[in-house]
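Checklist before submission:
- one chain only
- standard amino acids only
- sequence pasted in full

Submission:
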Amino acid sequence: MPSHNSSGDIDVFSGETSEVDIQIITSGGLRIPAHSAVLAAASTVLENILVRPGKRRSSERTIRILGVPCDAVSVFIRFLYSFKCTEEQMKRHGIHLLALSHVYLVPQLKQRCTKGLAERLTIENAVDVLQLARLCDAPDLYLKSMKFLSSNFKKVEETEGWKFLQHHDPWLELEILQFMDEAELRKKRTRRHKRELSLYLQLSEAMDCLEHICTEGCTSVGPLDKEPSIKRQPCSKFDTCQGLQLLIRHFATCKRRTNGGCLRCKRMWQILRLHASICDQPNDCQVPLCRQFKLKVQQKGDDELWKSLVRKVVSARAMSSLSLPKRKREEEPKMDLSHPQVMNFRLAA
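Returned file contents:
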């Protein structure tokens, strides 16, 4: 590592035995002695500068690195020798080091700066880091800065950096506002997708629960050839079982079912129809009306909206089967509410 001497210059890096043959000059007049071979090996840009013939001959070879603080240039040159940078150096000079690493094509330092700056984003520096990330072609840092700014926009909007941006870089301001709009749309789509997925998973479980009731029987409802369970505790196999049993009991006894005047009966009718739409063994299925719904679909077909619902429920069942124990699959559609098989349930007294 270099050290300052009494004249204000920086001594030769320790560990380098070859003769210093070049001077780095900074904005503050600091002169950093270095080895051209080391600089050329670490940066192709510096290599091109070193091999380029000078406009005038001089016994002293120099490279000017201006526009950034002297200490940042010193840390940059040290990195070219050791490929190391401390946390404190990154904290103090990260923004300038990113600019230097981009200009002089030092990918190792650029990667380190991108990560370091992303970890140190604040309300005050978010706009500056975002601008620099765009200028220095650092997409990861740009995206993280955008997300940070979008999440903290009310506070960032009060900073001097944002006010300066509004007056001097309206295009970036527009990019930020568009990003925020798109992010909000993505959140809404995600929330809607989660709600829909939850609904399809509930319908999927309802299909399994219906099969369970129609083949095994449960606490208060079962198939005609089985007595309902004498146990009165709620079914622990499916969360939806108790509610579905109550719906079946209502459906089997409702006087308004045949003329379509009962919303609860319509819901049960849709569950039966949905089951039939996805059942692949209608001839052996014990769920009421399954085969009849199948025949009706073969004769008249299904509308596209219903087909879409069936596909999504089938997809949800496939997803749930990856995390739940394997169970038989059976599925459901619609038909005449007056059909006698509607009564193919045994209800507990």
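Reviewer check: DSSP finds 14 helices and five strands in the chain.
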